[in-house]
Amino acid sequence: MTSKPPESAFGRDLIACLESRPRTISPKYFYDAAGSALFERICALPEYYVTRTECAIFERYIGQMAALIGPDAQIVEFGAGSLLKARLLLEALERPRHFVPVDISGAQLLASAAVLRGCIPGLEVTPVIADFTSPESCVLPTPMFGRRCGFFPGSTIGNFTPDQASEFLSGAARLLRGGGLLIGVDLVKDPQWLHAAYNDAEGVTAAFNRNLLVRANRELGSDFSVDRFHHYAFYDPVRQRIEMHLLSAGRQSVSLGERKFEFLDGESLHTENSYKYTLDGFRTLASRSGFEPRACWCDERGLFSVHWLVAPA
Predict the structure, then answer these.
(1) Whole-model pTM?
(2) Does 252 lie in the same domain as 179?
(3) Any idea of the CA torsion for 266, 272, 273, 274, to the nearest 10 degrees?
């Protein structure tokens, strides 16, 4: 007897994941309300250099970035979270007209957008609950004044495989034609930085990783034994990426609907990749995807970069 197919995209993708070998699922499903809150905690951890380094770059060079975007712009943020970085940018821009944050986590997006509306007088804020990984599928309002520019901080581009990153950038170049994209990109570095960032002492990243299973149990009625999956993250220097996995602690079965899926001892559920780039490597990728790389800003230690890419009309 077969189970009724799951109605949600999460359910369908989790079934496909459990049916396959190796088992892998998109990291976008981390971000329910609990997962988004856990990620905000990760961003404040001492080991997690990404957020504070990128924010320092913005604070130092935000005037240059705003000048390149220009006045009266519509800003589209892909994968909007707390909107902290977006506020830094919007407050530096000359007469920003419209802010369109796009994210799959609707509850946090709407709450953050409501706060932002009261912070910048005259700014129209239109949150869009959608899967930002396919830019051209997002239904966005037409800019009424200046050009449309994208904002993609946090090195979320690293969660895509190189092919997926190229596909995202190609779609973004078409969506933003005549404008540009301001994008944060994590850099190749000493692996000790990376190991510490993804294996923090408080175990917040481990809880974030396991929350995928908590969400599945709550939303889909599965019966993952959450404590019987170990958080495991490591850097692959050949692929230049962090891999994050949930490893089965012993042989066990998981039910989803009327289906049962077996996990062997140590078997992996691959939950995330985070690719790291060299400056030249990312600029080459952007060029091949339809953008014209222009300015680039880095911190003094070379941990992180922010790029301004022009989308030809």
Answers:
(1) 0.91
(2) no
(3) -130
